[in-house]
Amino acid sequence: MADVEPLLRTESGDAIGGDAAARRPVFELFEGFALTSVLASLERAGLLARLEGGSVPADPSEGRDGLPLATLRYLAQRGVVEEVNGMFTLSQRGREICKDKGYLVWLQGGYGHVLASLGDFSTGARRYGDDVIRDGRWVADGSALIGRDDVSPHATEVLTGIDFSHVVDLGCGNARFLIAAANRFGVTGVGVDLAPEACEDAGHAIAAAGLEDKIKVRCGDAGDLDAIPELAEADLAVAFFLLHEIFEHGREALMAYLRKLGSIMPRGAYMLVAEVQPASGAPDEKWRPEFTLLHAIMRQQLLTAEGWHDAFVEAGWSRHEVRDLGLPGAVLLLYQNTAPAGAEGGE
């Protein structure tokens, strides 16, 4: 039987729907957006954990309107799961994606609706902070998942080189780092976070870990150091992806914050900071361009490692260690308080 000539071809002669579609970049974006949305939504609903825990049956009667099976078949077509003998399991690609699912939760769950409003922000029809804000719970959950592999192991390694017994986590999210520190080092800690949803999740996580006698979390502004009396007894303060929010109010506000922190905490105490550096402009750069844009939407600027160093030294802190993190462009900074007790003001 003779081959049937396609009815439609592009100007270059390719059959529509064939190789021509594969070369059109819009479909790569289309697929990425849909797959990110699906996976983040499944994680937020607790359904992705089923696949991570083992095989899921291809049951057309499960769920509403047959959506679970339709979703599994979609994920199979996109190479995230494999179907064998009526059971769906994660593929190698799927396991690698799930290992880094925090990035999807952070972006789609925490900021998807923020990015969708970019046009209105640009025209002035709406304003971030007044009309639209990020989802604090999913930012915290996504950050914790990201931090599990790309921050915490590096932080733990750095902390093994210093002595500390009481930690204050500024912007603690769901307290995952405090819980890990208490389990690993036997320390006590206090966490402060502005998002009520994150604080609620932190309380549940602390109770589940049986650490209520060691860790306390309260809802409050980590920028208001006067409202955190525990700092006076802390030999370690932690601020993961927080200081750029202080820098939002200008360099002088950042300097005042660091100086005040140094005046409250004991001389010789440490501060452990994680921050993402601004996008460099390289066309193949990962993560940093999107992180930079989102923080521009929130009217926040980012600093390079050198910029953070200059601010810390000027505020009376000395560098103990700086290293790269697993997140592209992110750095971990450990500084020690060298300011005399009560020395808050600048020159």
TrEMBL record:
Keywords recorded for this protein, A-Z: Methyltransferase, Transferase
Protein known as: SAM-dependent methyltransferase
Residue ranges that the Swiss-Prot or TrEMBL entry lists as coiled coil: none
Keyword presence, Transferase: yes
GO MF assignments: methyltransferase activity
Keyword Oxidoreductase appears in the UniProt entry: no
Limits of the Methyltransferase domain: 167-259
InterPro entries recorded: CFA/CMAS, Methyltransf_25, SAM-dependent_MTases_sf
Top-level taxon of origin: Bacteria
BP GO annotations: methylation
